[in-house]
Specification:
alpha+beta, 131 residues, single chain, 5 helices, five-stranded mixed beta sheet
């Protein structure tokens, strides 16, 4: 079946009673959702240079649809370059993520909280001391 894969469609598709069903994506040729008795997986079904490639991209509960499409397009590019499907895939995906994650430490958050809340009772400040 050919359809535009959306999060709503992926979530609404029921597991099959027996066998598997494949939903091909309209947006990215060769990208598909495969639904079985107990799992839903994003897969790659692409014929490149006369050879059919059927590889698993990821399970649906582990990755978003957008990330799965990106991963599938990288996998297709690897095949076209003559590389193994999964070669360097993890390094490429790690580099594309934002590494400027400015999450404060617990101590930084606590210090900020104390400075912002100047009207705290003494008991509140003493009971919240970090070890």
């Amino acid at each position: 079946m050919k359809a535009k894969l959306t999060k709503k469609l992926v979530d609404s598709v029921d597991y099959t009673d027996k066998g598997t069903e494949t939903y091909m994506d309209d947006v990215l040729t060769g990208f598909a959702l495969r639904v079985g008795k107990q799992s839903k997986r994003y897969t790659l079904h692409k014929r490149i240079n006369g050879k059919l490639y059927r590889d698993e991209v990821e399970e649906t509960h582990l990755i978003t649809l957008t990330e799965a499409r990106e991963k599938a397009s990288i996998m297709m590019a690897n095949i076209k370059k003559g590389m193994h499907v999964y070669d360097g895939l993890h390094e490429i995906l790690e580099d594309t993520k934002d590494k400027t994650n400015n999450v404060p430490t617990l101590r930084d958050a606590y210090t900020y909280f104390k400075s912002a809340k100047t009207s705290l009772a003494k008991g509140t400040i003493c009971s919240g001391q970090l070890i």
